[in-house]
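The methods section describes the discrete structure representation at length, but only in general terms. The central task, working out the structure tokens from the amino acid sequence alone, is never made concrete. Nothing conveys this as quickly as seeing an actual entry. For illustration, here is how one protein appears when written out as sequence plus structure tokens:
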Amino acid sequence: MAPGYFAAFALIFAASVTFLSQYPNFKARVSVDDPDILSGSEFTHEIYQANMVLYKQVRESAAGKTIYYRDVYLTAEEKPAENFDEYYDFEKDTPLTYAGEYLDSLMDDWHASFETGLAAQLDYEIVDHESEKFVANTERDLLQLGTKEVDSELKTYYPYYIKLNFDEEGRLAHVWAKGENVDALITKVQNVMRSRYLERSLYENLSYSAYADVDWEDDIYYSSGGYDVEQMRLTVANTPRNCTICYALTGEQLAEVKASSRVFLSMQSVGNYDNIGVQELFRAILLVLGMAALILPFWKNYHLHEQLSLPLHIETIAVLLFCGFGVFGALSASLVMYSISDRWDYSFAYMLRSVLPGLSGAEAQGIVTAGNFLLLMLVFSLWFFLVTILGQAYVTGIRTYFKRRCLCYRLFRYIRLFFRRKRAKINRDFEHMDLEQDMNMPLLKLLAVNYLILVLISVFWILALFPLALYSIWLYFFLRKRIHIVQEKYALLLDATRSLSDGNLQTAFTGDWGMFTSFQEELSEIQTGFSRAVEEEVKSQRMRTELITNVSHDLKTPLTAIITYIDLLQEEGVTQQQRKEYLAVLERKSLRLKALIEDLFEVSKASSGNVTFHTEKVDICNLVRQVYLEYEDKAKEADLVFRFAIPEKKLFLMLDGEKTSRVFDNLYSNIIKYAMPHTRVYVTMTEQGDEVAVELKNISGLELNVPPESLTDRFVRGDSARSTEGSGLGLAIARSFVELQGGRMEISVDGDLFKVILRFE
């Protein structure tokens, strides 16, 4: 790190010494000639204003009373208005009085400027040839200047004078002058006196007045509050008339006038230093230092760029370097001028001695030189280290440094990412466009964008033909790509519909269908509906087969027994006791057959909904207990213990008492038939919001190998071997009666635990 700092210090030191060593050369090359400010535009315009002020004073002296500037310099020609389009209402005034007030105000300012300026800096005299009156601030006869009869002492006393003679028309008839550059002075004075300076100044002030839109140089149509419209044209006298004016400066007065223009002189002096190449040399040193700061990182012992890791962006550094290059270069000429100038009014050495009177000239100049060196070291150091910060690119890599520190790159990435997202969104919106929506708004947006693009291109007029061709080509490929995407999505839709129409219900509707996604969803719903319908149909066919088989078996069993016992009764030798036994079997089997047929008829009506219900207020608690009482003896025979958890209060529901009794009758009968002996049966009733739930739980005596949802199908038994006398219609009838009354019946099996839940609103 030490060699790097030493190299940087050596470069900055050498740059400061190099520039400082050129100061004597700068001083030798520059030739500062004080400009002749008395022939400048500023001074000659002051002379013009003084002419107008003094002429008014001499007119007052001739008139013997106070007069206004408007009376001297402003006149008007007035007549009745003819052929006018519009006019201005000046209320109680006229354009002459209105403009006269502004002229008096303007001339008052000129008079104040004259009294505090030229009147105190030079001698003057004006004479009115008509009245022979004169106004002067000196007893010397200045009007002799420029004549052959001029006194030699007077001629020597005034090394500078301007003498002006105006004729009766106000024309500048003659100019006499003495000074450093007489020809330039006379030319400048003649130009200014003929410039209509007073008229232009007055009309400029009036342009900011209440009547700013009046063309004051043309005929003015106006009304003074009445109905008559007048026409008036103003005339401004831009010069005095029939008089001679002389301005003269002594040597002492001339020095004071020049001193009063110190800033002007300073600017001219700085310009002289600029002309000898001070700025060019200073900026050349800055460029050399900048190149050295960028090259030194290639030296393996140079690590200064690694230490200066200020988090400045490239754009910030560039702006600072650009501003520094311009500002430091511009100030370098002023620095040199104030450091080596011998003029007291812009010299650091003179300023320092005025603050510290004890310093000698050499000491003050030495301090100024040392200060210059330190200032140059500071400026060159800032410049060098600012460029050195860019050396971080050698540490991280130019590409990485550019990505991390370049705001333009980040902005470009953000804009590119923004437009990519917008393009992706547009593509996504287009590909997934809902074809059922109103297309007016998307079309209007598309047309608006296209219109704006065409407007931007049309700005180039005839040159827009080439951009229009490029835009048309781009538009062709853009639309072709979009149409190709639509065709791909349409092909997916067509393949899926063809597969589905061929009966392939396993068709997979995969992939992105874009704007046809809604069709994908609809086809998926159709596929699901078809599959469900097929499953229902297969299940229905299977149930029909099982129904026929079960009905045949269940009807055939008692019918076979009836036929058999009828045959036995018809045999000879049947005893009376046997006859009674046979008839008892026949009665039992016929009753069984009758009950089976009635159940079949009942479940058929319930399934078709052809059942009439007579709803009334039914106490569900009492109904559950009452139906159980009919099966209490059978429960004891089956060795089952019923446990009830039913509210003691009355719970009324709008139900058909007979059909609801049949529901619980079938459930109790089912429990007694299939429950395991020596077990308990639980019957509970709870209120759950707006519902009443009745739950019946028992342990099955047989293994339940039938799905719970199939137990309510017709002719399905928990005894799959069908060894019991059940018809398999009890739960089916119960479920139908419950559902037809707006309730729900839920069956669940947990191992051997069989549970039925009835829910009524």
